[in-house]
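Hi support team,

I've been running sequence recovery on a batch of backbones for a student project. Most finish fine, but this one hangs at about 90% for roughly twenty minutes before it completes. I'm not sure whether the input is malformed or the queue is just slow. I've pasted the structure tokens below so you can try to reproduce it. Let me know if you need the job ID as well.

Thanks,
M.K.
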């Protein structure tokens, strides 16, 4: 079945451009459009999209709050949110990731990257390079804990190896890089990452990286 996509942006021209790109793909169907966050919520309930391509800065309700409501515990469907931004280091992107977005993409990204991002997010993965996650968090470190706060109780549910893997995820290493660093197989790393996500109640490695910073496990700027 085709991946159902909802386009949310306050600029009609951009929505038209995205629609043209996505509808050229056999496995993607654009099921609707919205010009702001409030319309997006109505459309998500009515159309049940798989992926919401979400602008951040919009009138009435911005993309961060819309993302929070779409992906929150009271959500009406399984929609994933892929945030669109004009700037690759945008403070609102950090808030959107905290709100539950599965990643972000620059508005001027090549068409093939947009299509690939839709497919990746629809498949339940995070569309955000770990290194970009770290750059974002480092830049806005002033909004994060200093590392002196008590460690959350949930962190104690992880084994020593799982904590080690979580730190490497937050540092921006891929599964292959983590495997090389720890002298284990990629399959083993994927298993550890899966256990970390399950134990901490996180959706993907983007949220895991955010958790590592917010818990003080990893300090901004640390190597």
């Amino acid at each position: 079945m085709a991946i159902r996509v909802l386009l949310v942006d306050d600029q009609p021209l951009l929505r038209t451009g995205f629609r043209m790109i996505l509808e050229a793909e056999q496995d993607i169907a654009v099921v609707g459009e919205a010009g702001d966050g409030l319309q997006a919520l109505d459309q998500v309930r009515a159309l049940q999209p798989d992926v919401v391509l979400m602008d951040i800065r919009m009138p009435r309700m911005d993309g961060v709050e819309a993302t929070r409501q779409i992906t929150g515990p009271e959500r009406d469907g399984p929609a994933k949110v892929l945030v669109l931004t004009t700037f690759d280091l945008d403070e609102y992107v950090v808030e959107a990731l905290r709100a539950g977005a599965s990643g972000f993409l620059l508005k001027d990204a090549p068409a093939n990257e947009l299509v690939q991002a839709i497919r990746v997010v629809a498949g339940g993965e995070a569309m955000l390079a770990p290194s970009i996650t770290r750059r974002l968090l480092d830049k806005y470190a002033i909004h994060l804990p200093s590392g002196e706060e008590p460690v959350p109780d949930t962190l104690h549910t992880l084994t020593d190896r799982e904590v080690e893997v979580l730190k490497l995820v937050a540092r921006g290493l891929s599964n292959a890089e983590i495997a090389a660093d720890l002298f284990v197989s990629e399959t083993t790393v994927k298993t550890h990452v899966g256990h970390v996500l399950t134990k901490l109640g996180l959706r993907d490695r983007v949220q895991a990286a955010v958790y590592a910073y917010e818990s003080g496990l990893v300090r901004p700027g640390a190597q």
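--
Follow-up from support: It reproduced on our side and the slowdown came from queue contention, not your input. The chain is about 50% helix and 10% strand. No action needed from you.
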